[in-house]
């Protein structure tokens, strides 16, 4: 096999997506490799960890067709090194059954026949989602995913149907915070009642892959989610036995006190008190609503700080209401919205969660003792 690949922004982005989809710690060595197939005027690259299957087709000058498996990390590093600091650079890939030369690097190879065969994602019952909508929804809620691998039902992003509406709820929670947004679309009947859960690796791959261009997302009843555009094809296995928390039980309740401002104003207030905030998990602060809305922080070693909030208070109580909250959780939520986004903090009481509401996403953050 011999082909010349043009190294440009599209190529680098494609290799980054494939790198995210590769299980570099897999116990099966073949799963750390990328299947490289040269055919016609295209170079087809495919990786899988048996749960996420990603295939990207790139234009190339093919001198000799063929297929071979090369280590994914070595492939990405060699191609990027070949195009480093050069405009319009190219990288020649020449491979045999035992080794491959990628640019200036020489790496061992494995037989293409040993690579796992792709699944058949076709299904008589599918639902179509817009790739740009799904990309925006994933980026808005992904920071709220759980990092604890012992709680797999929370370690991902869930899609659930909204009752009485032809829209979906895209949400993630780790038990301490909940982020959700509304996504146009519908689910197939098989998963409509329970919803489905996209695992963390799938969220990372889809988040990177959907930025490569407009995509069509298909949700089939055979437990595979498919994302496709002109050069990208991603399949994600959805574990039918691993269902997300019921949306009806985690939906946030209405709160009576509201402070309206922008994400940028809240972030500036957080930066003001940051000098008196400890490191996570000891990064608590108080959000106070009353005659003067403000953020307050105090630490025995770092001192005290207060920052007034610019904005409008609706339903202000006769006495100040203070709620303890994590600075890092609130900062992550605000960063997903953008500094210019209009948003509001909703309160119910000193022991109730607070809600951060914006057009793009809604965040609910549990209170904490200070």
Q: What features would you describe in this structure?
A:
The protein has helices at residues 9-21, 72-82, 131-141, 189-192, 200-209, 247-250, 263-273, 327-335; strands at 2-6, 33-39, 42-48, 52-64, 66-71, 90-95, 99-102, 105-108, 126-130, 156-161, 167-173, 177-184, 196-199, 216-220, 224-228, 232-237, 257-262, 284-289, 294-299, 303-308, 312-314, 321-326, 342-347, 354-357, 362-365. The protein is an alpha+beta fold. Strands 1, 2, 3, 4, 5, 6, 7, 8, 9, 14, 15 and 16 form a 12-stranded antiparallel β-sheet that branches. Strands 13-10-11-12-25-24-23-17-21 form a 9-stranded antiparallel β-sheet.
Short description, anyone?
The protein contains 8 helices and 25 strands. With 370 residues, the protein is of the alpha+beta class. β7 and β8 (105-108) form a beta hairpin.
Structural class: alpha+beta
The outline comes out as: elongated
Mean model confidence by pLDDT: 82
Poorly predicted parts: none
**Binned strand content:** 35-45%
Task: Please describe the structure with a list of short key phrases separated by commas or semicolons.
9-stranded antiparallel β-sheet; 370 residues; alpha+beta; elongated; 39% strand; 20% helix; 12-stranded antiparallel β-sheet; single chain; 25 strands; 8 helices
Secondary structure: elements and pairs:
Layout (H helix, E strand, L loop, with lengths): L1 E5 L2 H13 L11 E7 L2 E7 L3 E13 L1 E6 H11 L7 E6 L3 E4 L2 E4 L17 E5 H11 L14 E6 L5 E7 L3 E8 L4 H4 L3 E4 H10 L6 E5 L3 E5 L3 E6 L9 H4 L6 E6 H11 L10 E6 L4 E6 L3 E6 L3 E3 L6 E6 H9 L6 E6 L6 E4 L4 E4 L5
Antiparallel strand pairs: 1-4, 1-6, 2-3, 2-5, 3-4, 4-16, 6-7, 7-8, 9-14, 10-11, 10-13, 11-12, 12-25, 14-15, 15-16, 17-21, 17-23, 18-19, 18-22, 19-20, 23-24, 24-25
Helix pairs in contact: 1-2, 1-5, 7-8
